[in-house]
Write a structure and sequence with these properties.
6-stranded parallel beta sheet, single chain, 197 residues, binds magnesium ion, binds adenosine-5'-triphosphate, alpha/beta, 6 strands
């Protein structure tokens, strides 16, 4: 069994997240990709993060009935700061013998030196750095502590210039976000008034 894991804040989930998951599913012949929203991001964010229940719900709406992906509430249910190393240990308990591919955008993996127990993280999974606009995969190596470099695999994929930051800003400005995130998520944002103020 080979499982992909895409962790993040997903505030909100968007089409680039879904594309990264789909592409990895096909290219690495995964059995399923778990979308794992964090409870509390382990690192400070420059804005106040939306309550986990909303972020989880939007992820579920985005995935819908797609069988290739599943939203996993493992971090939200655990609560507290979401450390990847703990999630990976729990997933190995749940799926004994499974190979886990942890998918991260090139921007996120550049911070690996600040993660909790990064040596354990790379022991517990195959860490895949996916290309993202503005984050050069080649330059990435220089930003990663030398001891971790051998464990990072790079996965060049079509780059989509979509971020949750962009979506939040557009909603705040009253600009459309259709086609940046699934329609069900757009409707949820409209109904709840998220990101408006
Ligand atoms: P924010 O702008 O709030 O940081 P985000 O769009 O970066 O949001 P996150 O929830 O922070 O979304 O990211 C979750 C994971 O998805 C991270 O590994 C991130 O690098 C990756 N990711 C997000 N957007 C893209 C993208 N456009 N291309 C490739 N990877 C992406
Ligand atoms: Mg981000």
């Amino acid at each position: 069994m080979r499982i992909g894991v895409l962790g993040g804040t997903f505030d909100p989930i968007h089409n680039a997240h879904l594309f990264v998951a789909e592409d990895a599913y096909a290219q690495f012949r995964l059995d399923q990709v778990l979308i794992v929203p964090n409870a509390v991001p382990p690192h400070w964010k420059p804005y106040s993060v939306t309550p986990a229940e909303h972020r989880l719900r939007m992820a579920q709406l985005a995935v819908g009935s797609c069988v290739r992906m599943k939203v996993d509430p493992i971090e939200v249910e655990r609560g507290g700061p979401s450390y990847t190393v703990i999630t990976l240990r729990e997933l190995h308990e749940r799926y004994p013998g499974a190979e886990i591919l942890f998918l991260t955008g090139a921007d996120a993996v550049a911070e690996i030196g600040t993660w909790r127990e990064p040596e354990e993280v790379v022991r517990l999974c195959r860490l895949i750095a996916v290309s993202r606009p503005g984050s050069d995969l080649d330059a990435l190596r220089d930003r990663i502590p030398e001891r971790l470099r051998p464990f990072i695999e790079t996965h060049p994929a079509p780059e989509l210039g979509i971020s949750s930051t962009l979506i939040r800003a557009r909603v705040r400005q009253g600009l459309p976000v259709h086609y940046l995130t699934p329609e069900a998520v757009v409707a949820y944002i409209q109904e709840t008034g998220l990101y408006r103020a």
